[in-house]
Hints:
- The chain is mostly helical.
- The protein has five helices and two strands; from the N terminus they run E-H-H-E-H-H-H.
- It has a two-stranded antiparallel ribbon.
- Helix 4 runs antiparallel to helix 5.
- The longest helix is centred in the middle third of the chain and has 24 residues.
- The radius of gyration is 22 Å and the shape is flat.
- The two termini are 44 Å apart.
Amino acid sequence: MNIRTNLLAGIFFGILSLFLIFIIPSQIQIPAFDNGGPSPRLIPYMVLIGIFISSMGLIFQSLFFKKEKIFYYDFKKEKAGIITLFIISLFGFLMIKLGFLIAIFISLPIMIYYLGERKTHVYIIDLIIGVGIYFLFIKIFNISLPVFGGM
């Protein structure tokens, strides 16, 4: 499949930036008190407007200057990256629904197996490191992570 990279990226990021610009008011609240400083929405607005302007530049460059890079998308070559992304997304979903430790114990072995590792000690070490990271956040950093049931 051939993809026109500048045009596709310009359209995608233009639509995404406009969508995010419109939802900023519902996501970032303005403080009840006025301290005279800039609004917390200022930096996100500036970044998203910059992304929108850049995406319009990509579309303009693609349509008028014909500066376009055609990318051939070969699914067979990209399959490993897509599956890895799916497993990472599975981890995020499981972490929210079942908790961090259960998500580690489900998704990490799947990822390691998919990457081709078959030695048992690698699985054990990675799971111990996952539990260690959990306790590092809970005990040292004092940051709560989702536990069983996503609570």
